Batch of 2 targets.
Target 1
Amino acid sequence: MELLLVILIGVLYATGIFMLLRRSMVKLLIGLILLGNGANLLIFLLGRITKGAPPVIDSAAKFFTDVYADPIPQALILTAIVISFGLQAFAIVLLKRVYVLINSDDLDDLNTPEEEDI
Amino acid sequence: MLIAVLAGLFVSVLLIPLGRLFKGRLAVLISLLPTSLFAYFASFIPTIANGEAISFHYPWVPSLGVDFHFRLDGLSLLFSLLITGIGSLVFLYASSYLKGHRYLDRFYAYLSLFMASMLGLVLADNVLLLFIFWELTSISSFFLIGFNNEDANSRKSSLTALAVTGGGGFLLMAGLILMGHLSGTYAIQEMLNASSFLKAHPWYPAILALIFAGAFTKSAQFPFHFWLPGAMKAPTPISAYLHSATMVKAGVYLLARLYPILGGTEYWTYPLIVVGGITMFYGAFHSIFRTDLKSILAYSTISALGILVFLIGIGTEQALLAAAVFILVHALYKASLFLTTGVLDHETGTREITQLGGLRKVLLPLAIAGLLAALSSAGLPFTFGFIGKDQIYEATLHTEGIMPIVLTSLAVITNILLLYAGLLVGLKPFAGKLPERYQAVHLPHWLMWTPPLLLALMGIAFGAFPALIDASLLNPAATAMINETFDSPLKLWHGFNLVLLLSGITLALGALLYLMRKPSSKSMASIERFNYLAPQYIFGKLARAVRRFAARYTRTLHNGFLRVYLFRIIMFAVLLLGFRLFTGGPIQWIPAHLSPISVYEVAVLGILIAAIFLTVNTSSRLTAVVATSVIGYCICLLFVFYSAPDLAMTQFTIDTLTVVLFVLVLFRLPPFLNLANRRDRIRDWLLASSFGAIIALITIQAMNQPFDDAVSKFYGENAYVLAKGKNVVNVILVDFRGIDTMFEVVVLSIAAIGVVSLLKLKLKASEKE
Amino acid sequence: MKSTILKTASIYLLPILLLFSIFILLRGHYFPGGGFVGGLIAAIAFVLHSFTHGTEATLKLLRIHPSALIPVGLALAAISMFAPMLNGQPVMTGLWFDQPVPVIGLIGSALFFDIGVYVVVIGVVLTILFTIAQYSG
C-alpha cells in the first residue's frame, strides 16, 4: 500500500507543478491546492502509516500499550490543513481583485517588466 | 557600563516619537547625553592612570561566543573621552548651527546612534561585538553623510562611503572570524595569549591582509581614501565629528587594539609603513592644491590618518606613544578647524579660500580659535602640536638601518605641507584686508564660537603643561598598545638636539611656503588633470560596470513572468536532486513494514487519480471545483483508513468550506483559458512529471531509513501523565506545542484581516472610478 | 438554493450542528475532536444558514459581527497561555482543577486554550466567507 501512496504523492506533485506553470490564475490556485495535498500526504506517509490504531490512549490506560499511529505528523498536518484554508481564501480574493483591476485571467497581462524600473 | 554604551541607542530611538519636542530651543538639552557620558568616563581617569583596566561582562549569545564584554583600558578611555568630549561640543554647536532645520530631531537621532556605536566599538572586548559596532558606525555615518538627502551629490557621497567602508567591513569580519577560530576565543584579552601562535600560523598573512583591508577602508588610507573628501558633503558639525575624533579613527583604533596580538612582525610593519607613508604624503600634497576649506581639511585629515597608521607600523615604544599623542593633538586642532570653517560657511556663505580674508575684524573670538588651532597643527613651541611633532620625529629617528633618513624626511615633508594647510584654514581667512561684502558679518550665537575656541585653548593648555594629561591619559593609552607598562613623560623641551632642529626646519619652511604661495583656482585645475589616475575614478567606473551588469542580469533573469521563475526554480531543483539521486547509488525498496492492500483502498486511490486528471484536463470551472473537492474527500477517506480521525474530520470540514469559497468567488471569474501552445504544454508536463518522479523516489529513499520514534514515544508516554489528555494529537496541539498553535491562530487572523482589507480596498477603488 | 425543504431544515440544523460542534470541542482532549474541528463545524452551521436565508439574516442572527470573535478568541487563548505566569510558572504550563466534570473530564488551562482556538476559527472562517459574500456581488 505504501508504494501506491508514493505513486499518488508523485502524481499530486507533478500535477500541482504543472498547474502552477499555467498562465491562468485559477489554474494556479488549483495547482496550489494539489501541491498542498501532496505535501500533507508526504508528511503523513513519512510518519509511517498504521491501520486501526488512532493515537488516542485507551480509556483504562495511562499510556499506549499497543501499536499506535504516530501523532506528530497528524498534528503537523492538522495545522497545515487549517492554514491552507487561510492561504486559499487570501489567494482567491487576491486573484479576484487582480481580475477586477486588469480584467483578465491571464497572468502575463499582470506584469510586463517596466523598463524604467530597471 | 552597558547603559553608558547603549544610552545613545535609547536616545536615538526615543527621538523618533519625541523628536518634535527637541526641534526648537530644547535641542540643547540633548547635549546632556554626551556631556554626562563624558563625565562618567572622566571619573575613571584615576583608576586607569594607576594601570588598571575595568571589565564588564554581560552574556548575550553565549553559545556563539558573542557577549557584551566591555573593557576600559587606557586606549579605550582616550577614545571614549574624545568621542564623548568632542561629541558634547558638536551636539551643542549643532543645536545652533542647524537651528530650525526641518530634520533636527533626525540629525540628533543619527548622531546619538553614531556616538553609541563608536563607544561600543572602542569599549568592546570581543571581536564579534567590536565588529557589530564597527558596522553600526558605517551605517550611522551613512545617514549622517547623506543628511542633506535632497542633494544628489550628498547621496552619492554617502553611498560611496558606505560601499567602501562596508566592503572593508566585510573583509574585516572574515579576518576577525579567522582570528577567533584559530585562537579558539573571540575575547580580545584571551587572544593575547594566542599571540605567538597566531603569528606563527600559516594563515597569519591572510588574517593581516583582511584586517588591514577593514582598517584601511575605514581610516581612508590610500587607495581607499577617496570616500573621505566626498563625505564633506555632510553638514560641517558632522564632518568635524566624523573626521577629527571618531569614524576615521576607528581603523586606527583597530590597528592599535590588535597591535599587541598581531603586531611587531615584518608582515605587520612594512605594509603599514608603506601605506601609511604614501597616504600621509599623498593627503598632504593634495591638500595644498585645494581652495575649498573643507577639502583642504579633508586631505589634511587623510594625511594625519596616514601618519597614525605609519606610526603604528613602526611600532616602537616612541612610535606608539607618538601615535597616542598625535591622536589627541589631531582630534583637538582638527575639530577646532572644522568648527571654525563651519562658522565661516554659516556666516559668509562661502568656503572658498580665495574669497575669504580679514574676518578677524568681525569674528575675533573665532579668529583666535583658528589661529591657535593652526599654530597647534603647525607645531609651534608651547602648543600641543609641538609635542606631537616632536614625538613623531623621535619615533622615525629611532628606527633601524637606512629607515631613519627615509622615514624622517618623509615625515618632515608631510609636516611642512600639513603646516601650510593648517595655516591656510586657520589663518588665511582672518588675515589681510576685510572685503567689503563681509562688512556686515557678525558673530553668531555663542554656542557656535565657544566650542572651537575651547578646543583650541585645550590644545595650547596641554602643550604648555603636558603634565595635565601625560601620566593620566597618554601613557595608559600607549601602555595598552604595547601591553607592558612603560613610563616616558612628555617633555616640552628636549634640549638642542636633532629633533628640535627638524622642528625648526619644518616651521621655517612651512611658514615660508605660506608666505610665498597664494592659493588659486588655477592650482586646483592643474591637479585635476591627473584625475583619471585617481582611485575614485577607477572605483566609479567599477560601480557603473556593476550597475550595468545588474541591469542586464535583471532583464534576463527577472522578466516578471511568474511561471518562468517557477520553471527555472523547479528545473534547478530537479537537476540537483536528480544528480544526488543518480550518484547516491541504486534505489531499492526495502519493505521494512508494508501494509496490505485492500480493495476499497485501491478503489479510493483509483477515484483519486481519476479526479486529479479530471481537474487538470477539464476546461470547465465547475468540473474543476467538483473534482478538487473529490480529491479532498478521498484524502479524507485515506486519513480514516490510516488511523487519523482528527485529520479526517478537519479535512472534511475544510474541504466543504473550500467548496463554498470557490462557489462564492470563482463563478464570477472568466472561464478557463488555455493560453499555452502544445509545445509549451509538453515541456511543462515533462518538467512536472520529472519533479513528481523525483519526489516519489526521494520518498522511497526516506522510507528506507529506519524510523526514529523517540519524540512520538515521548508524547505517547507523557500525554496523559503530564498533560492529562488522551487524544495525543489534541494534546500536542493545545499543550506540548501550544505556542505553535497560538501563532497559527494568529496567522489565521491575519489572513482574515488580509481578505477583509483586500475586499474593502477594492470597493474604495471602484468608488473612485 | 432557496428550496423550502433546505430552508426549513437549516433552521433546525443550525442549533443541532452548533451543539455538535461544542460536543466535539469539549471531548477533544480525550477523543478525536478539538478546537479546530469544532470551530470549523460551527462555521459550517452558520454558512449553511446563510446559504438558505442570506448573509444578512445570518449576521442579524449572530448579533455581533464574526470579526469581533477573532480578538476574543485570541485573548482567551493568550490568557490561558500566560495565566501560569501569575503563579510563577513558565508560559503554557498546564493548570488543572482537581475535580473532574462529567462528559468533559478534567478542566484545565488547555481546555480554555482550545476554546480560544474554537472561537478564533469560527471568527476567521465566517469573516472571510461573509465578507466575500457581501463584497464580491
Target 2
Amino acid sequence: MVNEIIKLEGLTLKNPVMTASGTFGYGLEYADFINLEDLGGVVVKGTTLHHREGNPYPRMAETPSGMLNAVGLQNKGVDYFVQHIYPAIKDIKTNMIVNVSGSTIDDYVAAAEKINELDNIPAIELNVSCPNVKQGGMAFGITCAGIQQVVTAVRKAYKKHLIVKLSPNVGNIAEIAVAAESCGADSVSLINTLLGMAVDAETRRPKLSTVSGGLSGACVKPVALRMVWQVYKAVKIPVIGLGGISSATDAVEFMLAGASAIQIGTANFIDPAISVKVARGIVEYCERHGFANVSDLTGALQQ
Amino acid sequence: MKNMKTISKLEIIIKKCYGNVVFFLLRGDSPLPDITAGQFVQMRVENNPNVYLRRPISIHDVDYQNNTVSFLIQEIGEGTCSLGALAEGNAIDVVWPLGKGFTIANKGDKVLLVGGGIGIAPLLYLGKKLKENDVDPVFLLGGRSAKDLVRLEEYNGIGEVFITTNDGTLGEKGFVTQHTLWNDRSFDRCYVCGPLPMMKAVAGMAKMKNVWCEVSLENLMACGLGACLCCVENTVDGNVCVCKEGPVFNINKLLW
C-alpha cells in the first residue's frame, strides 16, 4: 500500500492531485464524472471582492497543444460566493480552496478576510498572476516589491494556509518565490498562464477580444517544469506544480522536479475524469518504482 | 440519475457523406442518457495532433429503441475534418448530453423550425419531439445551394418542408427570411439554428411579429461544462455560458 498523503504546512491532502483554478468551476461542474472526494483538493474559480463581468467574447483561441484564454476573472464577487456557493460545496470532503484575486491591495485583503471566516475553506490561493485583468492581478506578481506588498497585507488578514500562485511572465521566478516566502506564504503554486497571442490571418484580426491572453495546456509543460525546479531549489516552503499536466507521468515529472503537490488545469477540458486517473496513476508509478510514500517523489530527480 | 452527464465511447455504425457534410449513426455500449432536442456533445479528436480541444456537435437524432444517436458534421476546420475522416467501426469519445435544449411547444401550437446550412441538424430531433407532443412541425430550411441541404427526406417524413437557396437550385431563391411563407402563414413559436446573421435576421422578424422565438448559439467553447467561462454570450443576465445556460436561448434573453 502506497501512502498517498501529502502534508503542506498545516494543509493535509489525501493525495497530491488538485484541480487548477479557472478550469474546474466550483467542482460541482465535474461531479457527474468523478467523485470530488477522491481529489487532494479543488481550487475554485478566481474570486474578487466585487462582481466582475470579465472580458468581452471571444475569450478563447485554440493553439497547437494548448489554448489561449482571456476570461478576465468573471465571477459574482466574494459575498455571492459566501452566500450561494459555499453552502453547496462546504460538505465536500476534500480541500476546497478559494483562488482570490484583486485590483488593489485593499481588495485582496477584504476578500481574504471574508474567506477566512469560512470554516470549511482550509486555504486560499492568492492570484497575483492573472494576465487578463488590466489593473492588478499580474501587476503585483511580476516584481518582488509588488509581491511583498500584497503577500504581507494578506498574510495579516488571513490565518490559514496561504498559497501564492506565481506568474511565469517574469525574468527570474525564483526571486519572486523567495519574496513570497519571506512575507509569509505557506506554499507557492506555479505556473499561471504564459502571455500569448493568436491572429486570424484570413480576417486579419486578433482571435481574442483582448488581443493577448494566457496560454495553457500541454504546450507549456516544459516551461512549467523548469520553473518548478528553479523555485524548488530556491525556497523551503512546498511547491505546488502545474502547467500542462495531462497524465500521471506528467504529474510524476513535476514531483521529481520538486513539486509536493500538483494541479490539473486545461486537461480537465479534454477528459473531465483525468484528475482521478492521474491520482491513480501516481500510485501505480510508486508501486512500480518501490516508493512507499508519494511524498518521497518530491525532488527525487537524479542528476 | 439518468440525466447525468457522462463520458461514452460510441461506435460508428453508419457513415454517409454529402459533399463536406458527414452523417454518422453511432451506437452506445450502454443505454443512452436522457437527451433533450437541442443538446450537444463534446467529441474528442484523437487522430490529429493539431487539435487539442473537443469539438461541440449538436445531436441530430436519437433512437432509444436501437440505442443509437446521429450527428451531421460539416468539415470546416481541422477538428471537424478529422472527425469526418473516421470510418464505420471506429469509436468516438463523447462527453454528453450537454447544455439546455429547446422548449417543447404546447399541443396545438403552430410552430416554425428555421434552419440554415448545417444548423438544420438539431431541428430533426426537435421536430420528432414536437410531433410526439401533438405539435405539427413546419420546417423552413435554407442553404447556399441545393447540395447544402442534406437528408431532406427525413424532415419531409415528419412535417411540411419549405426551402430557400441563395442560388435558386432548390426551393425559393434567396434567404430564409425572404420566403413567401412568412406572408401566408402565422406561427405561435419559432425555433432557429444556423449562421449568426441568419439567426439575428429571423429573430428580428419574430420580434416584429411578436412571435416567441428560441435560437441555438454556437460560441467557441473549451470545456462545454460551464467551468472555463470561455463561450459566454452577453445577455440580459450578464455574461453567461452558452454551453451550460444555452446553447438554446429565448431571444428575449439576448441583447440582439
